Amino acid sequence: MTELHAMNRFLLLFALIVIRTLGLAQSADHSLLRSGPMVGYSDYKEVMLWVQTATAADVWITYAVKGQRMAAFSTDTVRTRKEEAFVAKLVADKVQPDNRYVYQVHINGQAIDLPYPTEFQSQALWQWREDPPDFSMAFGSCTYINEPEVDQPGTPYGQDMGIFQTISARQPDAMVWLGDNIYLREVDWYTRTGIQHRYTHARSQPALQPLLANVHHYAIWDDHDFGPNDSDRSYIHKDKTREAFELFWANPSTGLDGEHGITSFFQWADIDFFLLDNRFFRSPNDCQTCDATILGKAQLDWLIEALVYSKASFKVVVIGGQVLNPAPVFENYAHHHGQERLELLRRIETEGIRNVLFVSGDRHHTELSQLTLDNGITLYDWTVSPLTSNPSRNNEREGNTLRVPGTYVNDQNFGIMTVTGPRKDRRMNLTIVDAEGNPRWTREIRQER
User: Fold this and answer.
1) Which residues contact 438 (CB under 8 A, 6 or more apart)?
2) In the chain, is it the N or the C terminus that has fewer CB atoms within a 10 Å radius of its CB?
């Protein structure tokens, strides 16, 4: 029966390819598709794809090297279930390095035609062969999507969503979501139903779909997608929000062994990205008898050891809140957990770890902070916020003595990181772009040797 099923699948796939090649395909009812497809992590021989259906359904994806329509492959079929928010995570495991692929979603055996391109890429195998490839990556945080029935009364907190079209038009290779990617409300905090509704409501916005379908997405969380405002490890339903995070994002891993949380890691070209969890292990901000921690010992030890091991041209540490800003305000690392911040910086200095860039969100404003340690190593913290949430109005004068002049922005914006140059002389350009597509500033960071 297994061989017969496989043969039937092959014949169906072949027929679909022929039909689409001849322009005769009939697309399925789009009501079957709730949100997505979204392109997740990319590696040399594997790419994750994500789809959410409106009800229980069989989902699979066909894909082919762009320009080679007859050489097609398919993922396994996944049956979506209500218990998992009707989400399907599909692995394209027949990819080869350094290719671009076109793909199509199939639901209950019907092809879904979408009005925008659906493509993904595998990473290039450059090591020992050539210089690493140039690439660009988008960054952003704080995405509030209005839902008037449950929002606070008054002026809507969420702003226009046209910024997602602006990001998509830039055609970055990937995007990293820096936390507060959704905003759980009071009606969501204490049930799986509420949490999954909030994730579904945000993910299914039409303005998001073209960006999701063509750019590889990675994510961390901050307080609003973890739980209530300023929430910490005492939040009793963090198991449910962790479950939702893992369902709705397609990172290559979720959490350190035996430690839970959402810590992860990925590599793009010659750059290492360390995706940290600043909530699951965090002690309460105002606890007088707690060991004050944001990362927790196991995660902090892992980060330092992984940074020491890394041979990357740049080491990008992605975390929900600001690390370098010394102003003791809001939830900056320096405010309630300053000793752990000093320990993190001390260990980076002692180990002589160069080319570290922290990337953070949370603050509803953007800025670049720069700190030179006593041994001459320079660290950066690139805060990028907000995407659609209401911008801050009073943070410019809060006392960030490490802010690079001219980098403060307090309206809707996103970041574009572009990495170029030969292996031993890589250059990272950080550009902030507003919702209309206007560059607000650019700074270059040169690789330290």
Assistant:
1) none
2) N
- Ranges assigned E (strand) in 43-169: 47-53, 58-65, 72-74, 78-79, 87-92, 100-107, 110-112, 119-121, 135-140
The class of domain 2-121 in CATH terms is mainly beta
Structure tokens at 155: 């002026």
Distance of alpha carbon 273 from alpha carbon 255, whole angstroms: 14
Q: Which residues of the chain have pLDDT under 70?
A: 1-29, 69-71
Structure tokens at 162: 């046209």
Spatial neighbors of 316 by CB under 8 A, at least 6 apart, are: 271, 272, 273, 274, 357, 359
What pLDDT was estimated at residue 68? 86
For 415, the 3-state DSSP assignment is strand
CA distance 119 to 104: 9
* CA 110 to chain CA mean position, Å: 30
The burial of 229, by beta-carbon neighbours within 10 Å (0-12 exposed, 13-18 middle, 19 or more buried), is given as exposed
The pLDDT of residue 71: 65
The residue extents of the domains of the chain are 2-121, 135-446
CA 415, 268, 259, 308 dihedral sign is: negative
pTM of the complete model: 0.94
Tokens 């793009």, residue located: 268
Q: Which residues are within 8 A (CB) of 351 and not within 5 positions of it... i.e. 6 or more apart?
A: 304, 307, 308
255-275 pLDDT per residue, tens: 998 889 999 999 999 999 999
**Among 143, 141, 145, which Cα is nearest to 156's?**
145
10 Å CB burial of residue 13 (0-12, 13-18, 19+) is middle
Distance CA 369, CA 303 (A): 21
Handedness of CA 227, 231, 232, 237 (dihedral sign): negative
For domain 135-446, say whether CATH 3.60.21.70 is its number.
yes
Tell me what pLDDT residue 29 has. 59
| Strand order across the beta sheet in which 216-219 lies | 87-92, 47-53, 33-42, 216-219, 174-177, 135-140, 413-420, 427-434, 439-446
First vs last C-alpha separation in the chain: 60
Token output for 347 = 């260990």
Using alpha carbons, list the distances in angstroms from residue 171 to 207, 214, 251, 392. Answer: 16, 8, 20, 28
